[in-house]
Fold this sequence. Notes:
alpha+beta, Alpha-Beta Plaits, Cell Division Protein Zipa, Chain: A, six-stranded antiparallel β-sheet, 16 strands, 18% strand
Amino acid sequence: MSDLQVGLLVIGAAIVIAVLLYNWIQERRFRRQADAAFQTPMADVLMQPDVVPRETHKRVEPALREPVFGTGMAGGVGEAIEPHLQVEPVPPADEASPDVAQDHPVPPAYAPPRAAAFSDVLPLSPYDELIEYRVRIGGRDGVRGSGLDEAFNHARTLGKTVRWTGLPAGETQWEDVQPWRGVHYQQVVVTVQLADRNGAVEEEQLTALCGMLQAMAKSQGLIAACDDVDDALERAQAIDRFCVDVDVLIGLNVVARGEGVVNLARIVHEAESSGMVLGADGVFQLLDSRGEPLYALCNYDAEPFGAEVADGQASQGITLQFDVPRVPDGLKVFDGMVAFGRRVASEVGGVLVDDNLRPLTDAGIEKIRGQLMQIYERMEARGVPSGSRRSLRLFS
Length: 396
C-alpha cells in the first residue's frame, strides 16, 4: 500500500470520528434543554377524580340531501305526479347551534341546485310509470329542442320504443319533441318502454340511454335525472311475465268437408258484406272506429287474397284470427267472429273447426269464452284493460 493510500485512510477515519463526536455533543445539549423544559411533571387529568375535563366541541357533519321524487298517481291511468326536488334549508350563520365553537365554522349543508326542469308547478307529463322508464332533462333556462337532435336519432337504435315529450315554454300542454322545429322547452321527458312482444328491456339498454342523455345534458349545461334502473328492471320482468301469460291468439277455421274445397269468391263476398277490408298483406280485417283490427281473415292455404278473386277460385278453407289482448270488449267481438265463421261455413258448405281441426260445438265455444273472461279479469286487475292504449303498446 502506498503512502498516498495510507494518508487518505487516516484522513477519512478522522472525518468519521469528528462527525460522530459532533452528533454526540449536540444530542447531550438537546437532552439537557428538554429536561429543563419538562422538569415539573404534569398531572394526568384522567387520574384526577375532582377535575372535570373541558367540554369538547360537537362535530357537525355537512349533510348531503338526495333529491326526493314524488310518485303519487293522479288523473287517469298512466299519469304520474311530476316529482320535485326537496332541498333541506341551510340555517344562517347567526342561527347556528350554540354548541358549535365559533372559531371552528361548520361547512353549510350541501343543497342540490333547484333546477327549473324539476319544478313542482309544471303540468303532469305523459309518463306511464307501469310500463316505462323515465329520464327528465331540464335546466334553469330550459332546453333547446335543436340541441336534442343527435341524442334523438341515437335513441332510435336502442331496440325498444323511446318517447320524447316536451313542455314548450309558456305552454301548459306537453307535445312530442321534434328537434328539427327548434322549440324551446321548459322540460323534456324521455321514456323507454319496459316490455313488448320481444321481451323485457335489458339493463344495458337502460344504462346506455341514461348515460347518453346525461352526457348530452352535461355538454349543454343541463340536468338529466334518471329513474332507478334496478326498480325499472324489476317492473320490466314483472310486466313481461304478465304479458306472456295473457298473450293469446285464438284461431278458428272454416274448412271444406271431406276432400272438398271452399269457394273463395263467396267468402270474399261475405267478408266485404260484413265490413271487412283487404290489407296490403292480403288479409281481410274488421276494424274498429280507431282503425284497430278486431279480427282477421286469411287464406288457410297461406296464399294471400288478391284485389280480385275469380269465381272459381278455391281453397282448403280460411282462418279467422282474434288477438285477445289488443281487442276492446273482447267477448262481444269473439261472439261476432264465431257468428261470422258459422255464416261463412253455411255459405260454402264447410265446417267450423278449431286449430286441431276438431268441429267447434256450443260447449267448445263456451269453454273458450270462459278462458277469455279469466284473461280479461287478470288484465283489468293489472291495470292493462284489453284494447286500451297501454295494452296496444305492450302487445305490439
